[in-house]
User: Fold this.
Amino acid sequence: MPKKPLSPRQHLFVDGVVSGLSATDAAQSAGYAERTALQQGSLLLINVDIAAAIAERRKKLETKSDITAERVLEEFGRIGFSDVRKYMSIENNEVEVHDSFEWSDADAAAVSEIRTVDGEDGPVVRLKLYNKIDALAAIARILGMNKDHLKVEARADTLKEFVKMVRGKK
Assistant:
């Protein structure tokens, strides 16, 4: 719960972030100048009261919608770990699509499109799954498995001490 009441602009910023905008876009939509929106968005995100308001709004949305991080992760898992052999088989260069009533809920969740198109020898069923790579990347992000960024932790009481630490001086 925020300790201090938020200004109308800060409320608009919270609305933007909670709706999925980046901090920069949320700052602009809240009325901050375009030329300072990047910096302003960053500052607003680290404001304790604004961070608390964002967390509170997200928690309310999660409770109200019953959409939790676990459910999102599970859905990405259905896509990321789907196996095309559950939907079709190939024998003697013939493709047979399995009956969709045989698919589990998890199998069906990974399907993005089923349609019939005209082929040379008559109608052809086209089955398309959601992108596994995107789903696995999302899982890795959620679980913090991405190690492609540099994290620097240091303890310094002044900027001067920090610069000395970075340069390897004592």
Q: What stands out?
A: Helices lie at 8-18, 23-29, 37-46, 48-65, 69-80, 105-109, 132-142, 159-167. The chain has two domains: 8-65, 68-170. The chain has a mean pLDDT of 85. The two ends are 42 Å apart (CA to CA).
